[in-house]
Amino acid sequence: MKNIIYIIIGTFIFAAGTTQFAMPNSIADGGIVGVSLLIYYSTGLSPGLSTPLIFIVLLAIGARYLPRVIIYKTVFTISVLSFFLWALEDVLARPIDDVMLAAVFFGIFAGAGFGFIFQAGSSVGGSSIIARIMNHQLGWSLTGTNLVVDAIIVLAGIFVIGPILAMYTLIALYIGKVVTDFVLGGFDSKKALNVVSPYSEEISHRITHELASSATVFYGQGEYMKEQRRVLYIVIHSHKLLRLKRVIKEVDPDAFIVVHNVKDVSGGFISSGFGNG
To answer: CA 145 → CA 113, 140, 148, 242, distances in Å?
Structure first.
């Protein structure tokens, strides 16, 4: 039930961005919707009609290369998206004087919409179907093929909407990717740190008592000095990062610290730290 709600929310947000910011300002997109928008700018045919038609053709060609669960979810997603595109097109917004602003808004809406759709384990088909066909038949990379297909659609847009609007499309796509990653990563982002210090026990003690967190201990050996050292691995909420680094530097100003962006964290005592400490 949660996945269905996510799909409905995601498709509505994406459709709203498409009809209110992309269509009035002649901005395109990648995948099926990108092709539908180019058809709309060329012929006036509603994306609400062309999107499911294109999807049916692609599905007929590539259905045997897709897992059944993905097919069912994608069919539902495309159906809901097409309905929202058709319904919201009737309240089409007026063009924005600043096309860059329209591209930014479209990117934000599209990225947020895709984030919810991907959270539900679904997609809007298109590039992913072609990528799976090419991967199965020719061994091409799924990610690389997706990128190439989207790039071809955007380049084709140069002949329909012109190079300037095609560039705004690229900007919208980039913003959309950033927003999608943010939605998928969650609002409560985390950081991972590797800390090497001869005072690691004191650092670990202060982290436990002052930050209500914990650390996992590894043992590593420096190649130059051939000395074995304790290496602390810590996962912490991003808003605690500066405070954590301050604590480490108070104990050992020369501590070696490496900070990593964490894409996803699950299991263990994530709410208070990492692992069993």
So the answer is: 22, 7, 5, 40
End-to-end CA distance of the chain: 36
pTM to 2 decimal places: 0.71
Six-digit token pair at 35? 């092709």
Q: Which residues of the chain have pLDDT under 50?
A: 270-277
Contact 211, 236 (CB under 8 A): yes
* 190-196 β-sheet, strand order: 216-221, 228-237, 190-196, 256-261
Which domains, from first to last, does the chain contain? 2-185 (no CATH), 190-261 (3.30.70.120)
| Nearest to 157, CA basis, from 178, 172, 140, 176 | 172
pLDDT digits (tens, 9 = 90+) for 155-194: 898 999 999 999 999 999 889 888 887 887 665 668 888 9
Q: Are 83 and 73 in contact (CB under 8 A)?
A: no
CA neighbor of 107 nearest in space, from 165, 180, 158, 7: 180
- The predicted structure's pLDDT at residue 263: 67
32 touches 54 (CB < 8 A): yes
Q: Which two tokens stand for residue 245?
A: 């680094």
